[in-house]
Amino acid sequence: MLQTINLKTQQLLNYEVHQNENNQEWIVLVHGAGGSTKTWKRQIKQLGAVYNLLVIDLPGHGKNKGQVLDENYSFQFISEKLWEVVDYLRIKKVHLMGISLGSILCLQMRLLRPDQVLSMILPGAIVQLNFKLRLLADISLQLAKIIGYRRFYKLSAHIMMPRANHKKSRDVFIKESQALTIEEFKKWTNLYHNLNDTLNHLFETPSTTPQLLVMGSQDHLFLSAAKKYVRTHPTATIDIIPDCGHVVSIEQASQFNNISLSFLQEISPYSSLPKKPALS
């Protein structure tokens, strides 16, 4: 049985629960900048047929629009807000799945609570910045002020996903980003200032957690760093989807889902456990 629950409290991030009564295991799905829970709509049916899914809107995104959080955003603060939802639902251990900027948040979540993370699947993983990206991160706030935050996001989407076959992914992210207020654009753009330092710290932190990076062969900004990350981390593996861009979970959704399920079923420690009680 697949059950969907939508709940929102004053300071808890909006989330969806897709419950599978035949499995104890949970996957937490974290979208990227400008996205929402809708980013994962191509994964819900296939992954939800096997696992319990917890899909969360990031601050200021999706149904969190208008929710005011007192803090300035940092990767640690946002990761703590994501863990708050997991705690609220009394889920003890999770698999993490994060697309693009969501992959950074998954790495940060694991850093905060390594014992609660069973594995990580990072499609379109961002694990290190090359020179072009470091330059863009350094000038992001000034450039956004000059051309406007919405135009800056649209420009970033075209830089990351430039080819004709990337259009579906590009259009989805540009469309979903329209839900963000200008204030939220500012907060998220401010994160780019310390992005390189954050990524270097996460890149250099060893981990025993099984990790799968799923990359497109045409991901011209992030693929090389992902390959380097896998060479550096013994528990990390990589799967490269041919003729695919940055957002593999949209552009090649079915193939990405199959790759993810195969990985999870290989490493899953709880696959033979009995059914769990439903959430109350």
Helix- and strand-based class?
A: alpha/beta
What does the main sheet amount to?
8 strands, mixed
Supply the CATH class: Alpha Beta
Elements, N to C (H/E): EEEHEHEHEHHHHHEHEHH
Number of domains: 1
Based on the coordinates given, report the CATH architecture: 3-Layer(aba) Sandwich
Account of the protein in words:
The chain is of the alpha/beta class. It has a single domain (2-267), classed as Rossmann fold. 44% of the residues lie in helices and 16% in strands. The protein contains eleven helices and eight strands. The chain has helices at 41-48, 75-88, 101-112, 131-147, 149-160, 167-177, 182-190, 195-204, 223-232, 248-251, 253-267, and strands at residues 2-7, 15-20, 26-30, 52-56, 94-98, 117-123, 211-216, 236-241. The protein has an eight-stranded mixed beta sheet, with helices on both faces. Strand 3 (26-30), helix 1 and strand 4 (52-56) form a beta-alpha-beta unit. Helix 1 packs parallel to helix 11, helix 2 (75-88) packs across helix 3 and helix 5 packs antiparallel against helix 6. The longest helix has 17 residues, at 131-147. The two termini are 16 Å apart.
